[in-house]
Write a structure and sequence with these properties.
Order of helices and strands: EHEHEHEEHEEHEHEHHHHHHHHHHH
Largest sheet: 9 strands, mixed
Shape: elongated
Distance between the termini: 57 Å
Structural class: alpha/beta
Number of strands: 9
Strand content: 5-15%
Oligomer: single chain
Length: 415
């Protein structure tokens, strides 16, 4: 069996590291070396590791940070395969390593494996689990740049990945930067469709202590990634950065840090594939969806965007349109009937010019619904009915449908 090196960076790790080591020792793969890099701990990390000294390779260094620590571990590793495990995380599945080695040996074109993970509390209590392949079935470069799943502790790499590429020591989010570099260099990663590892949500950790700083650093890293000369032409930097900004805004709203949103909303105006107004209307639509899915209220969105689009009535209406849609789609057997009625009735509150503008926006939404969810003939019937009830010019209707079909390369709607 091929040797696997598991690298565990440790800094003031006395509370959790022995449990992490036990889950590596309990792996069914027979040939694992455990490398613990003590990054200048000032607590009793070295003391709690003494009972395990016959099972681990222990290396002490002056404090340099996690990126230097992981790179030191790579230098010391002798395995054909390399894995990383933070000292406060742990393996859930005793077969994780064995199964991933088997996957790499049966897929010689794969250079790495990525699995799913579970989020647990500081005490190890279950909170949620992430199965990234459900959103991103194929681990392609283009798909990864769009969705960007990274949890290093679930992964296993061939040693050859690190012949010329290492963790960058010049920024945070070094794991994201590493995966981007590997993919752009032509390395291939595959899925291990199984939840294998626990991420311990420790409130005092750097990531969790200040979400603003973490997101700000993440934004900086993505800007650097999207400036790399190896970036393929089929990846649009502005679209990618816009999607990352949307997720960052969502994260701040979810964590109640709405007073720190303005900087990220300003960034949207400079990093968007759309013109300014469409950017913010699209952001409201996307954020309404994310908040609904995560069972969060979104009524505050119009006020958040009022400084960018000084039309509060329009913003409130736009938000309601999307909120109604998600309620209907998820709770009313995918029917658009009530959704249609809500929109038509709400248009009566606006002037004729506003009515025309909002009717056109509503029609775009309905076309997006059909394109995105494949509602088929029921949607095209609803679109035509809505256009009639809202008194939309038929020429505008069919030109909009043609444009959207070309834009999204979906032709069923022209039937």
């Amino acid at each position: 069996m091929s040797k696997v090196s598991v690298i565990i960076p440790a800094y003031n790790a006395e509370k959790y590291i022995t449990y992490a080591i036990k889950t590596v020792i309990n792996q069914t793969h027979p040939d694992i070396e455990i490398i613990v890099i003590d990054d200048g701990s000032t607590d009793d990390t070295a003391e709690v590791l003494k009972p395990y000294m016959d099972r681990i390779i222990y290396h002490y260094q002056n404090n340099q940070g996690v990126t230097y620590t992981r790179n030191t571990g790579i230098d010391l590793a002798t395995g054909e395969y390399i894995a990383f495990l933070d000292h406060d995380d742990y393996y859930l599945d005793a077969n994780k390593t064995a199964e991933q080695v088997l996957l790499l040996e049966s897929h010689p074109d794969w250079d790495g494996i990525h699995a799913g993970w579970q989020i647990v509390s500081e005490a190890g209590e279950y909170k949620s689990q992430i199965k990234p392949w459900e959103q991103m079935p194929e681990f392609t470069t283009k798909a990864w740049f769009k969705y960007s799943p990274v949890f290093l502790q679930t992964m296993l790499f061939r040693r050859t990945c690190f012949d010329t590429i290492r963790f960058s020591t010049h920024q945070t989010s070094e794991d994201t930067f590493l995966i981007a570099q590997l993919l752009l260099a032509g390395y291939q990663i595959g899925w291990h469709r199984k939840v294998t590892t626990a991420y311990r949500f420790v409130p005092i950790s750097k990531t969790n202590k200040n979400p603003y700083d973490h997101l700000k650093n993440s934004l900086s890293v993505w800007k650097k990634i999207l400036e790399l000369p190896e970036l393929p032409k089929n990846i649009d930097p502005k679209s990618i950065l816009y999607s990352k900004l949307l997720w960052m805004v969502f994260t701040l709203i979810k964590q109640g840090a709405t007073d720190q949103l303005s900087e990220f909303l300003d960034e949207m105006a400079f990093n968007t594939p759309y013109h300014k107004d469409k950017t913010y209307y699209d952001a409201i639509a996307q954020l309404t969806k994310l908040l609904y899915i995560h069972e969060q209220q979104s009524h505050q969105l119009p006020e958040m965007f009022s400084a960018y689009i000084p039309q509060p009535d329009l913003l409130n209406w736009w938000h309601k349109v999307w909120w109604w849609y998600h309620i209907n789609y998820h709770t009313m057997d995918n029917s658009l009937e009530d959704y249609h009625s809500h929109i038509v009735q709400s248009l009566a509150d606006f002037s004729r010019q506003e009515h025309i503008t909002l009717s056109q926006k509503s029609l775009h939404i309905m076309i997006w619904i059909g394109l995105g969810y494949g509602e088929g003939w029921s949607t095209i019937t609803m679109i035509r009915r809505f256009a009639k009830d809202a008194k939309i010019n038929p020429i505008w209707l069919y030109s909009a449908i043609l444009y959207m079909s070309i834009r999204y390369r979906n032709w069923w709607i022209l039937r």
